[in-house]
Amino acid sequence: MKEAEKLTEIKAFVFRLFHDDVTGHDDNHMQRVAEWSRLLAVKEGADPFLSEVAGWLHDVGDDKLFASKEEAIKERDELLRNLHFSERDITYIYHAIETVSFRKGKTPDTLLGKVVQDADRLDAIGAIGIARTFAFGGAKNQPLYRKEGGSSFSHFHEKLLLLKDKMNTPSGREEADRRHQFMEEFINQFNRETASE
Ligand code: ADP
Ligand code: NI
């Protein structure tokens, strides 16, 4: 089975699981993370195909998105076995995905994990990161901004502005710097427009 055919099946699986998401974790998020994972892999010398696969699948089984984490993981396992991935590649992909989430606070110990984590973090910053933050906030009934915190806007200071210094790879860091700068401009303008006496 060709790599392109495997990717077609994986995309269909991801589309089915994430298409209806309105929290910023829809299938387009998976696609952007998959594309950046491949791009960073090429630049950093990781396996481009396995990185792309891990990018597509990185949020499958995330407990904030799935009622049954076990069920999602089981389906993912069946998918890759049906697509004839070797046990070695499956283990490598799953181990990388395990270490990706920011909230779990882990630093990946493989190049594959580092690349996918960087790709996921890039999608949390810049213009798309800003859009996702307010989409997430809206879906969770969070206020736009509030002086005392606990708002979508406070997420920039709590997490998003910290991400550029946590990037794993030089090419990830380069793109993060660009996106960070744009986010700072947005924050300055936001503060100007919302400042009250
Ligand atoms: P993970 O990468 O593990 O899914 P998160 O769920 O923390 O990590 O973040 C995913 C995206 O969801 C963030 O980039 C952000 O856009 C949004 N998000 C998460 N928590 C918040 C929050 N408290 N307020 C606004 N947006 C949030
Ligand atoms: Ni993600």
Overall pLDDT metric: 95
How many separate helices? 9
The biggest beta sheet is recorded as: none
Number of E strands: 0
Q: What is the rounded distance between the termini?
A: 65 Å
Number of domains: 1
User: Ligands bound here?
Assistant: adenosine-5'-diphosphate, nickel (II) ion
Structural class: mainly alpha
H-E string: HHHHHHHHH
| Overall body shape | globular
Tell me the CATH architecture: Orthogonal Bundle
The percent of residues in helical segments reads 55-70%
The Cα radius of gyration reads 17 Å
Which percent band covers the strand fraction?
Answer: under 5%
Low-confidence stretches: none
Question: What's the CATH topology label?
Answer: Hypothetical protein af1432
- Name of the top-level CATH class: Mainly Alpha
Secondary-structure blueprint of this entry?
Elements: H1 3-18, H2 27-44, H3 48-57, H4 69-82, H5 87-98, H6 111-122, H7 126-139, H8 154-158, H9 170-194
Helix pairs in contact: 1-3, 2-3, 2-6, 3-5, 3-6, 5-6, 6-9
The structure holds adenosine-5'-diphosphate and nickel (II) ion.
Fold and architecture overview:
- By secondary structure, the protein is mostly helical.
- The protein has one domain: Hypothetical protein af1432 (Orthogonal Bundle).
- It has helices at 3-18, 27-44, 48-57, 69-82, 87-98, 111-122, 126-139, 154-158, 170-194.
- Helix 2 packs across helix 6, helix 5 packs across helix 6 and helix 6 (111-122) runs parallel beside helix 9.
- The longest helix is centred in the last third of the chain and has 25 residues, at 170-194.
- It starts with a helix and ends with a helix.
- It binds adenosine-5'-diphosphate (ADP) and nickel (II) ion (NI).
- Residues 29, 33, 58-59, 120 line the site of nickel (II) ion.
- Nickel (II) ion is lined by residues 29, 33, 58-59, 120.
